[in-house]
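Subject: design request, 317 residues
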């Protein structure tokens, strides 16, 4: 199809003096899984709620499968599956009754509820009251409701916030399976690993604007100089009163930053395009007793590193 699954043109939303979404352009193709990544207050939820039709933009255009909320509300409601940041169900209603209620909105047969509950791993809870479900099970129920109409567009707003690691990975598995149906998804999250695991495209958002947009590899290549080497130095008596980091003057040509971690040690970070040579250089300085390395690790640049380089803070701050 030539028509994008979701398209935004110069979309802006303000709340009094705050611009929550600032002239955003976005195009998402059919079958893409897109992570909208950013801290609380970045504008993620506001952006998604405008796509969902819950809020109306102040300016700009939004189309979903070539349709708009102004002209095609009934159609868009049928093809969208939505899981809000906080989904509350009636406590004294069973899981099966909850699914059947939402299925009735779409004139879907009750047999669909059994299929959905099997898919999200809640079949054995079909007769349980919602009040008796764990946090992870409630999140699964919210996703089950979003899937009831077999949506072409799936919008999940922080679906795993507050879950334990095991429940989070269970939800990831459910979402990952939906790719087989050519579902188009926007996932808002502030979990780096969630975006990396589930999505083939990542958009980093902050203060109502997009800071970066691409695959993980594209973002790593565009916004990073290479791998990251992290090391901890011990204070050696031979250094006298000078901090050990002062003895790294032989590495000034490298891009590195260091911070005092404790009175008797120093932590440093090196960003390098040649991790092997840099590690050899660092270890040679240790063998020559120029520095005293306590610990050293090498790793790939992460989304959190990229976010810090753009905003000066961690994503979860």
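Subject: RE: design request

Done. Sequence follows.
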């Amino acid at each position: 199809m030539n028509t994008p699954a979701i398209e935004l043109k110069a979309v802006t939303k303000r709340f009094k003096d705050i611009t929550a979404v600032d002239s955003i352009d976005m195009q998402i193709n059919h079958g893409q899984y897109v992570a909208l990544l950013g801290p609380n207050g970045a504008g993620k939820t506001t952006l998604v709620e405008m796509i969902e039709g819950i809020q109306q933009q102040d300016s700009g255009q939004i189309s979903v499968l070539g349709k708009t909320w102004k002209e095609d509300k009934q159609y868009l409601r049928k093809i969208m599956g939505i899981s809000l940041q906080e989904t509350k169900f009636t406590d004294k209603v069973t899981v099966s009754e909850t699914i059947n209620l939402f299925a009735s909105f779409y004139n879907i047969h009750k047999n669909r509820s059994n299929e959905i509950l099997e898919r999200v791993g809640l079949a054995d809870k079909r007769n349980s009251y919602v009040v008796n479900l764990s946090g992870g099970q409630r999140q699964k129920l919210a996703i089950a409701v979003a899937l009831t109409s077999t949506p072409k567009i799936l919008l999940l707003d922080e679906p795993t916030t507050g879950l334990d690691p095991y429940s989070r990975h269970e939800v990831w598995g459910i979402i990952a399976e939906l790719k087989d149906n050519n579902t188009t998804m926007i996932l808002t999250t502030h979990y780096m690993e969630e975006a990396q695991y589930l999505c083939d495209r990542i958009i980093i958002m902050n203060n109502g604007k997009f800071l970066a947009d691409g695959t993980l590899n594209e973002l790593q290549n565009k916004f990073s100089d290479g791998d990251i080497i992290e090391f901890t130095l011990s204070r050696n008596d031979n250094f006298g009163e000078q901090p050990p980091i002062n003895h790294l003057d032989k590495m000034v040509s490298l891009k590195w930053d260091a911070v005092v971690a404790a009175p008797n040690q120093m932590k440093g970070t090196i960003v390098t395009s040649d991790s092997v040579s840099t590690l050899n250089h660092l270890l040679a300085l240790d063998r020559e007793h120029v520095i005293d390395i306590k610990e050293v690790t090498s790793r790939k640049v992460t989304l959190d590193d990229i976010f810090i380089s753009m905003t000066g803070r961690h994503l979860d701050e």
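The chain has a mean pLDDT of 84.
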